[in-house]
Amino acid sequence: MTARKSLEIFQLNFDLLYKFLANYGKISSMETLGERIRFLRESADLSQMELSKKIDVSQPSIARYELNITEPKASDIVKMAEFFGVSTDYLLGVSEI
Q1: pLDDT at 5
Q2: Longest CA–CA separation in the chain, Å
Q3: What is the pTM of this model?
Q4: Which of 36, 55, 68, 81 is the most buried (most CB within 10 A)?
C-alpha cells in the first residue's frame, strides 16, 4: 500500500469517526444492515456507484443491500467493514462500534 493510499484511508476513517460521534443518536437507532451501510456510504460522501467500484461489488447489489432486499455475502461484509474501518459486528448490528 502506498503512503498516499494509507493517508486517504486514514482521512476517510477520521471523517467517519467525526460523523459517527456527531450523529451517535442516529447511529444507535439504526437497526438494519442496510441502514448502516447507507449511513457509512453517505458519511463518506460516496455514491452507490463509487462504493461499488472501491469494494468490487455491483452498484445494484449495493442498492439491494441498502434497501434490505438482499443480504451481502460474508466476503462483501468483510470488504465493507475494512473499507469503512468498522467491525463486521457493527455492520451486522451486534455492536455499536
Answers
A1: 61
A2: 38
A3: 0.71
A4: 36
